[in-house]
């Protein structure tokens, strides 16, 4: 009897897994339709003279320009330094956000002490930090990474704090009934309940990290995709500007997709629409 049940369950599990894979693949292809359509329309508009080539060069012109930079090795250097700034700032900002977000979310006194000031700092525009960091840290890599870290910090902090404070009090009461220690409550109740908000905060922080690295590289950088945009503007080369913007979009999408896959695997226990077969 048990062997029949196992043979029945295994094919069903395989079918569900195959459906999930097929659904993911079809969703990925659907996401390419609009970008491909825009590129084709853009190419046609450029070739037919609807737009001036010196203002909006065709996609093939942009690709040729970036390919020439890649062959000379310059493009790889710009991409590498930008990726380094984003990831270093992301790690630093996320670590600071986890430490402060966990403390302010879990301890009411710390929240009352720190949160009002942090919420006020969150309203400061990114470019307003640039002259201050240059004065304090200098014009080197440290100021650029710090600026990215500031952009990453606030969404991660806000989502983690909200995730902890939004935990159902009944779950905490259940932990007390079972005589959980503070460490057990954090491990078995708080972390799983706050994890969805935390991962969303990481994704939001990473997207802001890409925005802040542009601000960092627009001012005082001699290398990076942001610097390449400024160079293209100063030399009247719109293909460099557009190519840099496209690369920002591509790498931003790739890094977000990595976090999204981690989110899907980590939260596959959730009974929601995304995990529905």
UniProtKB/TrEMBL annotation:
Cellular component aspect of the GO annotation: plasma membrane
Main localization, broad class: membrane
UniProt xrefs under InterPro entries: MetI-like (IPR000515), MetI-like_sf (IPR035906)
Pfam families listed in its UniProt record: BPD_transp_1 (PF00528)
UniProt topology in membrane: Multi-pass membrane protein
GO biological process, one term: cellular response to sulfur starvation
Keywords: Cell membrane, Membrane, Transmembrane, Transmembrane helix, Transport
Listed transmembrane segments: 27-45, 83-107, 119-139, 145-168, 189-216, 236-255
Cell compartment(s), UniProt: Cell membrane
Boundaries of every ABC transmembrane type-1 domain copy: 75-259
Family: Belongs to the binding-protein-dependent transport system permease family.
Protein's UniProt name: ABC transmembrane type-1 domain-containing protein
Organism name: Halobacillus faecis
């Amino acid at each position: 009897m048990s062997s029949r049940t196992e043979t029945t369950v295994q094919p069903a599990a395989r079918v569900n897994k195959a459906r999930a894979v097929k659904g993911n693949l079809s969703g990925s292809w659907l996401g390419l339709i609009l970008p491909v359509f825009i590129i084709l329309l853009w190419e046609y508009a450029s070739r037919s003279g609807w737009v001036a080539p010196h203002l909006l060069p065709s996609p093939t012109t942009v690709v040729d320009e970036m390919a020439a930079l890649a062959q000379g090795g310059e493009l790889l250097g710009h991409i590498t330094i930008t990726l380094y700034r984003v990831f270093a700032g992301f790690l630093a900002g996320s670590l600071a956000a986890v430490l402060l977000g966990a403390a302010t979310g879990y301890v009411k006194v710390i929240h009352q002490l720190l949160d009002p000031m942090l919420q006020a700092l969150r309203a400061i525009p990114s470019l307003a930090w640039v002259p201050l960091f240059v004065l304090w840290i200098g014009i080197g890599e440290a100021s650029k990474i710090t600026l990215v870290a500031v952009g990453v910090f606030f969404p991660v902090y806000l989502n983690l704090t909200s995730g902890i404070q939004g935990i159902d009090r009944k779950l905490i009461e259940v932990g007390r009934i079972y005589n959980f220690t503070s460490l057990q409550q954090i491990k078995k109740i708080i972390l799983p309940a706050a994890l969805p908000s935390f991962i969303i905060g990481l994704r939001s922080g990473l997207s802001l990290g890409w925005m802040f690295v542009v601000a960092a590289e627009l001012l005082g950088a001699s290398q990076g995709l942001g610097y390449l945009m400024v160079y293209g503007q100063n030399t009247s080369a719109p293909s460099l500007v557009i190519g840099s913007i496209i690369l920002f979009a591509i790498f931003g999408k790739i890094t977000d997709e990595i976090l999204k896959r981690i989110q899907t695997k980590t939260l596959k226990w959730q009974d929601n629409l995304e995990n529905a077969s």
